[in-house]
Design goal:
Rossmann fold; Dihydrodipicolinate Reductase, domain 2; alpha/beta; six-stranded parallel β-sheet; single chain
Amino acid sequence: MSAKVRVGMIGTSYWADDFHLPALASHPGAELTAICGRDPERASSLAHKHRVSQVFTDYEEMIDRAGLDAIVVATPEDLHHPMVMSALHAGLHVLCEKPLALSAVQSQDMLIAAERAGVKHMVQFTNRGLPHYRYLKRLIADGYIGDPYHAYFTWPTGWNPAQDINPYHWGFDARRSKGAVAELGAHLIDVARWLFGDVVRVTGSMRMFVHPDVPDGTPMAEANDSAFVLLDFASGAHAVIHVGLRNIAGPGLRTGQTAVISGSAGTIDTRADPWTAPAPAVSEIIGLRRGVDMAEALPVPEEYYGDTDPADAFAVFRQQSVGPRLFIDAIIHNLPIAPDFNDGHQVQRIIDAAVTSHETGTAQHL
């Protein structure tokens, strides 16, 4: 490998532009070598903006010709499996966006291939890098709530709200996605596993409240824009997750990502909304311990932000060893990495089980 990790980017979405490319460019050990997108003008524009030397419209050509060490896949999930498998067959380290795949069959295939290739593999579950969630993880690990009993996690967003024209989006198309339970649910399912461990049973209930138009007029197999998922953990704890894409959401509402987590010694009530809240980003943790009369604010310690501005929720991804920067550090220093493809596969199993539970009306055991 060269002095720097030569990275190729597949995908030209706003998330690639605003998150992945700046994070990679901020790492002194990474070299943004190539970018691939189906729209050559968009790909060229991003390449110019982020000083990427090579532009491709065919990801296999990029993998073959760009001289890469690693690749980032930030495309819709129906494309993850072929793109990741091609990169793994070429011996590249891979960072893949969530959810890892379109099905658990695919994600298991990807996990096995990554392990056989002996490369670093990572899934971009963004919450794990946010200071708010990292501190929440420590509070629970340090026993603030004692033995976990139950929790509920919510994330209502205003993605294409119901009062607007209903455009087609691949995230609502069951041919390309499993809907809200995958697009948003993957994040919260991963947080739940990260905090409470293995899931042994899954129950799901899903709806499609707004029916989008299909550009070519063909019938669309609809996924879901609202999903409830009940998780039973091996520890005996259980949790409810709700995600929704059609909410009337905005400043002034106490929405965003919220959680109430209770256990034998206390309760934590928390919310954060780094994606949609106006600056300063909403992030708060409140706790109440057994035997105490009044809940207390639990501000995130400054050490979790470092030199970054807490009002810029994603600044840590451009300065600390989290997200894409953790991926690069793991390659350079041969470090263990999490969340990896196994985490992505376990989340995919839960997503699949939730969809099957909804379709059959029965809980699914993992």
